[in-house]
Amino acid sequence: MIGFKAIISGLAFQGIAALAGAAYADSPCAGVDTDLTDPRTQDYTKLIAETVSEGLEGSEQLQPSDVEIYSYLESGNWSAVEAAVPTADIGMFFFEEIDGLKEFRDVWGGWADPSDRPELIAWAEALGTPEELATCFAHVIIDDVGENQGSTPTSSPPG
User: Fold this and answer.
1) What residue segments make up the domains of the chain, in order of their start?
2) Which of 31, 53, 156, 159 is the most exposed place for a label (fewest CB within 10 A)?
3) CA 103 to CA 46: how far, in whole Å?
4) In the CATH hierarchy, which top-level class contains the domain 31-143?
5) What confidence tens digit (pLDDT) does each residue in 52-74 have?
6) What's the maximum distance between 2 C-alpha atoms anywhere in the chain?
7) 3 state SS of 100
């Protein structure tokens, strides 16, 4: 009887795993890397601080510790990071990797509702982002409002 229970339990687990995989495959962020690791946080807080500080004088320049990261999206050679800086509203910063270097392309800021989804996707695709990144971006902006921004942001240590 124990062998039968183990087989049934194994089949049930496989069924649940298959359903979870199918749900993920249908997710607006399927195929997009959304893993915000410590090294990525350090890299992007520095990139965003440099981007926002461009053209500013000494004490006006941001430090990586001034940047709070809420979410990370990557597809192909494109990435987008939802971040907050003291001098502006939360925005989604877009970067394209060329020859191993991440180059800032644009930032989107503001609020959107579900009727804005096609416009957000078109805007991101016009930058050159892959379709899956554009779709995930719109999902994060519209559907995850409050989830990411209410979570504990990550930032680089002072320095």
Assistant:
1) 1-28, 31-143
2) 159
3) 12
4) alpha beta
5) 999 999 889 999 999 999 999 99
6) 76
7) coil
